[in-house]
Amino acid sequence: MNMALIYPMFQAAQTRQVLKKMDPNPPFMNTYKKLFNTQPSCSCDLVSEEECELPLIDLSLLHTENASRCKREIAAASLNWGFFQVVNHGISTELLDRARSEQVSLFRQPFENKCKDFSADAYRWGAPTATSLHQLSWSEAYHISLSQSHDHPFKHNTITRKTIEELAASLSSLAHLLARVLAEGLGGDAAYFEDNCNRETCYLRLNRYPPCPVPGGLFGLIPHTDSDFLTILCQDQVGGLQLMKDGRWITVKPNPSALVVNIGDLFQAWSNGVYKSVEHRVISNPNQERFSVAYFMCPSYDSIIQSQAETAIYRRFSFREFRQQVQEDVKLIGYKVGLSRFLV
């Protein structure tokens, strides 16, 4: 064969190998080839009927004569929506921007580096147990335990570690503030959250949703409810978050100045169903990547979740028992059942 033809072909092959090694995206198509071969499209209902702006609450009012009204708005949003947005929340734009910059740099590393440098507990992507495209999440994430007994996944990157820890501390303070307000709205014991939810039990998740080339799209994150008390979400301006409202999916319009808060399963049980843990999901984008950071307010595994209502909807259970039941359901039937397992 003519060497003048062979050399360009060799160069092209080398270039493809270099680009592959530099690619930040997980190998979704190769890893889940069997699913794509048997189900060429997800055929999921990915389109919502409308876009909405979540209830918007100005937390600076908590320090004014309008504090009572602000607290009522938080409780009403938790009851009627299970989701709301907060502004003037006390977390600086500078810190949020710095954290986003560090997050983007982390995720844009070559995929090979991300897999090599972090344990399976810290870096995750896709859905290893998926048996259909409906169970596949087109996303990757760093799960960061805030417990001092765990090795920090960024222990060798001082700037990133300090930024993440600063963000976690700020989100923790905000989560405790909101939990106190919600507990007081029920006439409950706000000290419960100080006693049971701390640095040792809560965690952060850094999310990236790569562009998805699959025709018709896929879930960036499959429909679910959160298995915690409450979640605080810092997201970018690439839309994709949807929630279930009045029996239909609606798209949440991103707000550049707000953080999103949602009620988790444990608060729904603790409030005897007053506050709602609402099903939500993320839809993949064919052209743009999406970033978000989620703070999960969780108790210790031995913490008891119990409503103080005279007639309780849910039986008394520990967080450990709840988590184990969720894991068993996912393993056996492919999805989380959640609170309905704990009805009286």
TrEMBL record:
Residues 200-299 form the Fe2OG dioxygenase domain. InterPro entries: DIOX_N, IPNS-like_FE2OG_OXY, IPNS-like_sf, Iron_ascorbate_oxido_reductase, Oxoglu/Fe-dep_dioxygenase_dom. One of its GO terms (molecular function) is metal ion binding. Pfam families: 2OG-FeII_Oxy, DIOX_N. The lineage of its organism: Eukaryota, Viridiplantae, Streptophyta, Embryophyta, Tracheophyta. The keyword Manganese does not apply. Its cofactor is L-ascorbate. This is Fe2OG dioxygenase domain-containing protein. It comes from the Eukaryota. Keywords: Iron, Metal-binding, Oxidoreductase. Belongs to the iron/ascorbate-dependent oxidoreductase family.
